Amino acid sequence: MANLINVAKLAGVSRATAARAFSSPESLRPETHRRVVEAARALGFRPNKVAQQLRAQATLMLGVMVPSLDNPVFAEQLQAMEEAARAAGYSLIVTTSSYEPSREEAIVEEMLRQRVDGLALTVADADHSAVLAKLRRENTPCLLVHNPPATSYFSSVGVDNHTAMADATRHLIALGHRRIGMIGGPLLQSDRARLRHEGYREAMVAAGLTSLPLIEMPRHTQVALSQLEPVLGGADGLTAVLCTNDLLAISLIGELRRSGRSVPGDLSVMGFDGIELGRHLYPSLSTVVQPRAEFGRVAVETLLALIRGEDPQPRPLPHVLREGESAGSPPAPYQAPEPSVS
Amino acid sequence: MANLINVAKLAGVSRATAARAFSSPESLRPETHRRVVEAARALGFRPNKVAQQLRAQATLMLGVMVPSLDNPVFAEQLQAMEEAARAAGYSLIVTTSSYEPSREEAIVEEMLRQRVDGLALTVADADHSAVLAKLRRENTPCLLVHNPPATSYFSSVGVDNHTAMADATRHLIALGHRRIGMIGGPLLQSDRARLRHEGYREAMVAAGLTSLPLIEMPRHTQVALSQLEPVLGGADGLTAVLCTNDLLAISLIGELRRSGRSVPGDLSVMGFDGIELGRHLYPSLSTVVQPRAEFGRVAVETLLALIRGEDPQPRPLPHVLREGESAGSPPAPYQAPEPSVS
DNA sequence: TTGTAGGCGTTATCAG
DNA sequence: CTGATAACGCCTACAA
C-alpha cells in the first residue's frame, strides 16, 4: 500500500525521484522534494527495510547467541552490545542456546538464512564446537565472546581467564590462605572452566600449595552445600573457595550462612564476573571483574571491523580484582591452650 | 551466488521446480527432488529469508523493547520470550530503551521499518506514552508487557500490581508491623509504581495504619541509605520497608547490614519481582514473585494471537508471595525498665 | 533535475 | 509433474 510507487504517483513523480527524496534529498529541486515528502506523509509511508536489505545485500543486523540470560554477566554484556550496535545503525537478533549443541546449530543456521551481517557467539568449548567448525566454511564474519581464541581462526573478545583466576588465587594466598578450593558449574569441560582452573592450579603450585580438582556443582547458579561438606569440615578443611561465576559465589555464601557459618570468618569466598549486584550484597562479593560494558562495545566494534573486511586483533580485555567483604584472612588455627607465662 | 537460480541451473530444472524442492518436496518426482537437493548441497545453497520476507510480506520477527537488561526480571522474561518465539518459528529483535522517550520513539520506528510482525513493549507509563499514541495509528500488532492495560486499547500481560503490593503489605501487617514504608526507583510517575503504591496505601488504610509517600531512590538498583535514615531512626521509625523491585531490596539489605543493623531484626525488607537470586541470598528475600517465565510464554502467545487477527484477552498473571528470611516480626518496642515484682 | 529499467531471491499462479 | 512469469519494495546506473 504505502510504498514508493504510490508515493511517487501521489506526488506526480517517478519511483526514482520519490526514492531520491529519501536517499539524496539535496539532488532534488526543493519543490519536488517537498511534494514527495508531503505525499509520503499523507500516505503514512515508511521505508521497507526488508526490501532495502534484499536490494543492498546487507541487513545491518547482527546475530547474537549467548548461553542464557539468567546470568547477569551475559545480560549486562548484551545490553552494552545493543547500545553499541544501535549507535552504529545495526540491530540485534538475540538468541539463547543453553549450551545445547542442537540449539546452537539451529540458531546459527537460522541466522545465516536471515543473512545477518555478522555473528557474535558464546559457545561452551570453542575447540570442540561443531557449529564453529561449520562456520569456518561460511564467509559470514563471526566473533567469539568470552571464548578464548582457541584455534585462533576466529577473533575473540574476552579477558585472560587463566591470568584472571591466577590473580584471584594469589589474592587469597596473600590474605594468608593455604587450603583453597575451586567450584564450578556443570560444564567442567568448557574452555573457560579449564583455563580458570589452570590459572588457579598454577598460582597454587607457584606458592608451593596443593591444588585440588575443580568441584562440579549441579547448576551454574546454585551450589549444593552437601557436596562441599567433605572438603569444608575438619582441621584441614578449606579456608577459601574460588567460584567460576558470581552467582555460584553468592549462592555459596547464602548456603554457608544459613548453615551457621560466617563469611569470611569461617570461609572466604571469591566470585568471578563482577556483576553489579555483588557490590551491594552483605558481605559484598570479592570477585574478578570482567568489564562487561566494555565487552559489549569492543565486541560490536570488532565485529563491525570484521564486516568491513578488516583484520582486527582484539587484545584480551583487562580484568580487575574487586576486593569485597566476602574474602578475608583465614580463621586462626586451633591452638592447644598453652601454659601462661606469668 | 548460491541462489535458487543457480541451484536450478545445476540441477537442470527451472527456478520454480528448485523452489518446490524445499517448499513442497512431495510434489516433485523423487528423482527431480534428489537432483535439486544435490545441486543445493554442492553450491552450499541456503534459502534467503530476506527474499522470503519480502515476498511473503511477513518477517516472522517480533520486536521486543525492554527498559534495560540490568534488571534480571527483564532478562529472565526475555529468555522465556526467546524460547517461546523460537518454538513458534519467530525470531526476536531486542532493544533497550532506558525508559528514554527519544529512544523508544527511534526504536519503534526502526522496528516498524523492519516490518516486524508484532511488538512487545514495556514503557514507563502506558497512559502518557508518545510512542503508544503513535502506534495506535499503525496496524502492527502491539502488546504491552508489565504495563497495566491502561487505556485498554492495547492488550497487556502482567500481574495485578495493585493487588500484589497490597498482599505484600498485608503480609507485613500480619507479621505485626505497624510502621511500614515504601521505596522506589527514580520513576515515581511510572504506571506500575503508582499502582503498587496505591496497593500499599489501601492495605495500610484498611488496617487503620498510616501510609507514607513513596520514597524515591536515585537509581533503580541501589538505595541511598542517607535518604532513609530520617524515617528509620527513633522510637517511631519504620519497622518494615517495601521495595518496588528486588534489586533495591537487596541493596537496602546490604546497606543496612553494613551500617550495623540486622535484617529482619531491626528492619524487615520485602522486594518485588521474585528474581531467582533472591532465594539464595542470606537472608533470603521475601518478595512478590512475578512468574517471569510464564510472562515470556504468555506474552509471545498473546502477541502471536494478535498477529493471527484474534482478540486475546489475557488475564492478569498470578503473583505469589514468597516468604524469605528478610521479613520477620518487628523488634520488640523499647520498654522502660519496670521495677521487678519480686 | 528527473525518468527508465533491471535486478536483489523467492514463491504463487497459471499453463502445459 | 514441471516451466514461464509476475510481483514483493527498493535502489541506482544510465539516459534524457
UniProtKB/TrEMBL annotation, chains A, B:
Keywords: DNA-binding, Transcription, Transcription regulation. One of its GO terms (molecular function) is transcription cis-regulatory region binding. Residues 2-56 form the HTH lacI-type domain. Pfam families: LacI, Peripla_BP_3. Gene3D superfamilies: 3.40.50.2300, lambda repressor-like DNA-binding domains (1.10.260.40). Residues 310-342 are annotated as: Disordered. CDD domains: HTH_LacI. The keyword Transcription applies. InterPro entries: HTH_LacI, LacI/GalR-like_sensor, Lambda_DNA-bd_dom_sf, Peripla_BP_I. This is Substrate-binding domain-containing protein. The lineage of its organism: Bacteria, Pseudomonadati, Pseudomonadota, Gammaproteobacteria, Oceanospirillales.
